[in-house]
Amino acid sequence: MRSSPPETRMELNLYECLQVSPRAEPDVIQAAYRALARAHHPDLSAGVDAQQRMCKLNAAYEVLSNPRRRAQYDASRARPVRAQTGKRAGRLRSPGNKLGRGPVSLVEHDTASPIAPIMLVLVITGLLTGVMLAFWFIFDSL
Fold first, then answer.
1. CB 60 within 8 A of CB 53
2. Which of 48, 56, 94, 96 makes a 20 to 30 Å CA pair with 65?
3. CA Rg, the chain, in Å?
4. CATH number of residue 33's parent domain
């Protein structure tokens, strides 16, 4: 049984083919592949498209089970394709960059935890208290 050529392999969504999330762990991908292979194997399934379905499953598992190939596949899915849309992909802008030039920020910078300022106030208060106690002990002993 041969898998489909690489051109066909990239056209279909491999995660949908194996019915898993793009964030699925490797053991989840393997379990999904095994379950689907048992259900759609041409020797066990009476479906007319069992051979074609099994080729797609094999191709999807071949890519998603290999960490390097999976990373390449994920990168190719995330990249906007100019040829498919016929338009130029829109530019992402960082929050302070009005022109859309320069480094792209995918993470918001104002999402800092509110605990950090509170901890800073507590540390400063503790230091000031310590300094005041030190002066009190020094001047009390005179």
1. no
2. 48
3. 29
4. 1.10.287.110
Q: Evaluate whether 94 touches 103 at the Cβ level (below 8 Å).
A: yes
Check residue 112 and give its pLDDT: 56
Query: Average pLDDT, whole number, for the chain?
Result: 75
**What is the DSSP secondary structure assignment for residue 4, as one 8-state letter?**
P
Domain total for the chain? 1
Going by C-alpha positions, the residue among 101, 1, 109 that lies closest to residue 56 is 1
Alpha helical stretches, state H, 19-100: 26-40, 50-64, 67-78, 82-85
Which comes out higher in pLDDT, residue 77 or 126? Answer: 126
Instruction: Please tell me the pTM assigned to this model.
Output: 0.49
Confidence of residue 51 (pLDDT cuts 50, 70, 90): confident
Amino acid letter, residue 120: L
Q: Which domain holds residue 59?
A: 6-65
Phi-psi region of 93 (alpha: psi -120 to 50; beta: other; left: phi over 0): beta
